[in-house]
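pipeline stage [seq->struct] | target=Glycosyl transferase, group 1 | organism=Thermosipho melanesiensis | residues=403
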Amino acid sequence: MKVKLPQKSIKDYEFISKNDVEELIELAKNLKNLKVIHVNATSYGGGVAELLYTLIPLMNNLGLNAQWEVLEAPMEFFNITKKIHNAFQGEDIELSEDELEFYVKINKENAEKLDLDADVVIIHDPQPYLIPMFKNGNYIWRCHIDTSSPNLKIWDKVITLANRKYKKALFHLKEYFQEPFKSIAVEFPPSIDPLSDKNRKLSENTIKEIVEKYGIDLNRPIITVVARFDPWKDLKSAINVYKILKERIDIQLLIVSAMAKDDPEGWILFEDILRYAGTDRDIHFLTDLKGVGHPEVNAFQTISTVGLHTATKEGFGLVISEMLWKGNPVVARPVGGINLQIIDGYNGFLRYNINELADAIFEIIKNSKLREEMGKNAKKVVKKHFLTTSHLKRYLKIISEVI
């Protein structure tokens, strides 16, 4: 299924760096009219979809012919690919031969019905990974998850089916490079779009309307977690951190999420986390089920005193950069791509233990000077490394190499 996209202009990003924009225009000159297809599992929910909504229109504005195809598959397929996702992140699970056969079958069907006639095809994550088995082309695999210690039994079974069909494999960190991709692997961190509804500067009136609608008190400190309902996000630990702090200071916890189409497990975890939180009125569950979209997420991050992220595995965690971009420090566990974004003691704190996470947040809340300084540093880090222009530059260079 082809995704319809808005138009964007690269010139609008000159406020980040005029030199970067000029470099992008120059890089794209040799790629005019080159057809590039991105393939992923869903057009809504999760960081991959958000990235593509920005990157593909900008590729088109630079003169490429970039398009986006989304897999067509039943829920049974996404149950299987969620298992594969978890196995790639190290979970000890089994994948039956029947499940593997069904995974292959759906990839084959999509290879036949999606528009994949292009100069370069970029496959995102495990769901469409097998498509190159059934359709020739110049393929790049873009892996957005933490593969630093995969379940090798499942990894080998799945990856070796199609690895030779790929010209490049892109991972957030070098620590994620695994055989048989090491010879073609590239370190490739993602980005946030500073002009998207989730990251652009909102008016005070817009923020006030959103805050009042969802009953949040601006006169008390606000801790915000933005994460999918996924076992790796460990949202129970976030609630535990909040409960420890609640005994010391009058605070609120915002748990902000979207229910992704390709993650059926999320609904089960959502109910489990709701039960775990109980009836505490200062824990706010703010999801698309309550009308929360990108402007609302933006507002919640903007009004936050501090961001919290308790994931035990994290491919990158774009929500960290989103919070930092709003000038707020973040306290998080030092896992995966979080280590690239948070410099301990500079724009937040890296802690693992629940009590240490709570202590770090308490220090930020109580020390306004520290909070202000960390907030300034937070925005600097994102502007330098994790905005759209840097990411787009990496894509144009890798596409040039592949063709």
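stage status: PASS
auto-comment: The first helix runs from residue 18 to 28. The mean pLDDT is 95.
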